[in-house]
User: What shape does this take?
Amino acid sequence: MTELLSDASRTEALAPLLATGWAETEGGTAISKRFTFVNFIEAFGFMTRVALIAEKMDHHPEWTNVYRSVEVILSTHDAGGLTEKDIKLARKMDKVAADD
Ligand SMILES: C[C@H](O)[C@H](O)[C@H]1CNC2=NC(N)=NC(=O)C2=N1
Assistant: This one.
């Protein structure tokens, strides 16, 4: 099972993500971000691309889509908090959103 990030690696991994709009949730067990697109099709295209990546990683986001926004929460439920898997998926999501 993937291990929770240590305090030091967590701080290091989170810094660049916080700069792109990710935030730690209360309690620190997850990170979240709201992605906003120009329309519903772009938002749904983002979700479709990320869904394929998430399935390959066997790591799945909790997310909500309303019109052109997608609100994402990432946490490793098996570990009870943040792991390297969440960091990797967050980076991939930022990349996919930037390619849109
Ligand atoms: C058996 C399977 O690997 C696990 O249930 C995976 C699937 N996807 C997952 N996704 C997330 N976000 N957290 C998990 O703990 C998790 N566990």
Q: What stands out?
A: The domain at 7-99 is CATH 3.30.1360.20 (Gyrase A; domain 2).
